[in-house]
Amino acid sequence: MVLLRLSSQALSRSRFALSPLAETVASMILLAKAQMANPWLAEWHDRHHADFASAVAADPFAAGLVRLLSSTRWLPAFATVPPPGSMRTTLADELPAVAAVDDEMVLAELTRSVEHSWATHDLAWLTGKGWAPRVAELLAWGWRTYIEPEWPQRRAMLERDITYRAGLLATHGWPRALKRMGRRIAWVGPDAIRFNTQDGPDRVVGDDGMLFVPVSRSSGSWLCVAPPDRHALVYPIRGYAAEQAQPQGDALDRLVGANRAAILRSLDQPATSSELATNLELSLGTVGGHIAVLRDANLIAGTRIGRWVIYRRTETGDDLVGNA
């Protein structure tokens, strides 16, 4: 298995970050697929797939690269650069590192991607010179066309996942915060993260720590590495389906009231009162009043993190939502 080793200093400096580059790569990989298995992404995929496929097919370089990215277990390092480490990262902050890679590295990484693919590929489409700038141009087009128009909504979902995991981190530590980031990702021992179960050498994370980067359109996770020891773990957000409308008028609504029932359901993922107010289209005062009642009934609990209070369901609250 591949282990990511962290010193105590690296662990203390590990943090969450956003990456428009990772969001773009993940989205383009999904759009390249003929069908979408995840039902909560099917509508988005069906809306854009034909247009995306037609545009990519018009350029042999783009068609070859996208087909390879969507059918390999080895995403090339030049397209998966770790972000700078900020929640305010823009694509303009990330693309220069993509465009700066020399052709020799591009060829080496794409060759490894072909070796780790479950489809048959050749690299005949890799013609001319200056391949990395062409990759950066393709990613910039994907961002402008398919991600940027809905980035505010996506960003809100990404921040909500980070809020949830930050609450787990503050309460239970990194092992719990990493739970369900990926099928094979887990905390191992006192100082290591298991990234996958394949054979491979351990990696040592630098003293600046590990970055954890959520993406909203992905069915898997991947590791971003930059010399000498910068690492970022990209993972799909949890509970995307929970963002969809929940059925109303059931037993829980009749028991505690529609708004309080909506708050309890929304806390499938912990959230602040402001997030609850925004997501449920209620006033902050109304949400605050309901939160007080739900806390008094031991259905939810709050944990202070800096200037925020993160609310989550208690075991009693979980039982009530599950049984109502």
Describe the 3D structure:
The protein is of the alpha/beta class and 324 residues long. The longest helix has 22 residues, at 151-172. 49% of the residues lie in helices and 14% in strands. Residues 240-249 have low confidence and may be disordered. Helix 2 (20-32) packs across helix 3, helix 5 packs antiparallel against helix 7 (131-147) and helix 12 (273-280) crosses helix 13. The protein is built from 14 helices and 10 strands. A 4-stranded mixed beta sheet has the order 3-4-1-5. A 4-stranded mixed beta sheet has the order 2-6-8-7. It is globular, with a radius of gyration of 21 Å. It has 2 domains: 2-236, no CATH class; 245-323, Winged helix-like DNA-binding domain superfamily/Winged helix DNA-binding domain (Arc Repressor Mutant, subunit A), CATH 1.10.10.10.
Short account of what is shown:
This protein has helices spanning 8-13, 20-32, 39-57, 60-69, 91-99, 103-115, 131-147, 151-172, 174-177, 251-256, 258-266, 273-280, 284-296, 315-323; strands spanning 2-5, 15-16, 186-188, 192-196, 203-204, 211-215, 222-226, 230-236, 300-305, 308-313. By secondary structure, it is of the alpha/beta class.
